[in-house]
């Protein structure tokens, strides 16, 4: 049994030790489980305005690969260097609160100090969990929702293409597009099994499985009349193909660039793609990147809509929960390798 300590001001017992995941050394190419290690750190009582949170779930997300690399210019998060503890969205339970914290033990909150069992942080860095399943706060749906409401709004009956549709953002983007009035929703993925799930469980009308032929040919077959709206999480050859398939007035929203970000030949912060600029001009196509900082009103709006849709059973949030912090070092590698469907979290 883990030894515990009790703060005189806060009679809730705290463990003496917490485990957290740290970067062992800067990866050469794509990170693997060997580039991460688990360290033990002391747990101390919260000071004024602070809380200690026992994390229950934390998000595994591809942006960590960029933060570990050499191309972090313009990234709105601090880089990760050898010895640093990983971080990211997490959901947990307040187990101790300092004077004036405004949160009581037992409160379920969302914060950004994931990749550790216990987090001590300012209470105002926490947000109360309000969704039916607290893990849903770890979804990447805000970016998909923002892209489809701010950059590329869907008109009734239009055809929408979502690249990387079996990923955390893509699977929600397809459902949001349908709820927004799309007449046809097409996705792409890397396996036939994922494609079948997208069609059978998440309402995609067609799914392109990359690799069996040039991607442009596969997309043209799936969308012979072209596409009106694109939510692109991948970039690369898929972005090239969507420009070729774009109908007059099409809107392309870029919310990721995994083809470059998760390439072993790059450093995580660049994703070149060949785009036919002539077609953009003659078809009147817009291409815009979605930055959350430009749309500060979106997260709250998304949370309200998402919560309503979840309660009504109109949207599904698929996630894979990998058990235990001992599994965490391998979780990022598994995400990069595309082993899982939907959002990937570690459950503590």
From TrEMBL:
<protein>
    <submittedName>
        <fullName>NADP-dependent oxidoreductase</fullName>
    </submittedName>
</protein>
<feature type="domain" description="Enoyl reductase (ER)">
    <location>
        <begin position="33"/>
        <end position="346"/>
    </location>
</feature>
<dbReference type="InterPro" id="IPR036291">
    <property type="entry name" value="NAD(P)-bd_dom_sf"/>
</dbReference>
<dbReference type="InterPro" id="IPR045010">
    <property type="entry name" value="MDR_fam"/>
</dbReference>
<keyword id="KW-0560">Oxidoreductase</keyword>
<dbReference type="GO" id="GO:0016628">
    <property type="term" value="F:oxidoreductase activity, acting on the CH-CH group of donors, NAD or NADP as acceptor"/>
</dbReference>
<dbReference type="Pfam" id="PF16884">
    <property type="entry name" value="ADH_N_2"/>
</dbReference>
<dbReference type="InterPro" id="IPR011032">
    <property type="entry name" value="GroES-like_sf"/>
</dbReference>
<dbReference type="Pfam" id="PF00107">
    <property type="entry name" value="ADH_zinc_N"/>
</dbReference>
<dbReference type="InterPro" id="IPR020843">
    <property type="entry name" value="ER"/>
</dbReference>
<dbReference type="InterPro" id="IPR041694">
    <property type="entry name" value="ADH_N_2"/>
</dbReference>
<dbReference type="InterPro" id="IPR013149">
    <property type="entry name" value="ADH-like_C"/>
</dbReference>
